[in-house]
Design brief:
- The protein is mainly alpha-helical.
- Among the domains are: about 10-50; about 115-155, no CATH class.
- The protein is about 25% helix and about 5% strand.
- The protein has 4 helices and 3 strands.
- Strands 1-3-2 form a 3-stranded antiparallel beta sheet, with no helix packed on it.
- The structure holds a DNA duplex.
Length: about 180
DNA sequence: CCCTGATTCGC
DNA sequence: GCGAATCAGG
């Protein structure tokens, strides 16, 4: 591939395989096999992380965090810190897409990934709630994309190809610096 | 030893 | 942002 970036198709495949429960090495092999690429598993891991698939879970090297007795927590009180999304300017909610977030007016079949045919739209449904198995809109996808026409426009409308299913899931506050 | 995931760091 | 190098656990 010429571009030094991940094509949307590759990122899409990455998400598919990741959601399917495959390991990064497996994902890398599959993507390389299917697209003729040469991603290393490190590349897949890094990409998945940047995509927001991997939660920024911090749980390595707990070597620090003393907090011995006699001294309260090192964490200062945090009085003000939340307000941004609470009351956005009323002018911010303009018209942009006749959809709430995942409703394009079509009828999603909500089939599982394993039942998903090669030519089916892979727009993910579910996933809003943890534990809920993720299903997909299984309608004929448009050429060149992994989504059907409505979802195709929905996915690459505003942003690029990222920040989609990672919305409420990646909202883990990590301001513990 | 093999494998894996996860992070760091230079490009 | 990308990915190799690197670290850490199984």
């Amino acid at each position: 591939m010429e571009p030094g970036s991940w094509p949307s198709e590759h990122s899409d495949a990455l998400r598919d395989y990741f959601l399917k429960g495959m390991s990064y090495a497996e994902i890398g092999r599959e993507i390389n096999a299917r697209f003729g690429t040469a991603y290393t598993r490190n590349a897949v891991v890094g990409r998945a992380r940047r995509l927001g698939l991997a939660a920024p879970a911090r749980m390595k090297s707990p070597s620090i965090v003393p907090a011995f007795p006699g001294e309260p927590c090192l964490f200062p009180p945090r009085p003000p810190a939340l307000q941004s999304w609470s009351v956005p300017p009323k002018s911010a909610m303009k018209l942009a897409a006749p959809v709430k977030l995942r409703c394009v007016g079509i009828k999603p079949r909500l089939i599982s990934l394993l039942e998903l045919a090669p030519g089916d739209c892979r727009y993910p449904y579910g996933g809003d709630k943890d534990g809920e198995e993720i299903t997909f809109c299984g309608h004929p996808r448009t050429s060149g994309s992994s989504y059907c026409t409505p979802h195709f426009h929905l996915t690459r409308g505003p942003g690029s190809t990222s920040a989609r299913v990672a919305g409420p899931l990646v909202l883990r506050l990590v301001s513990a610096a």
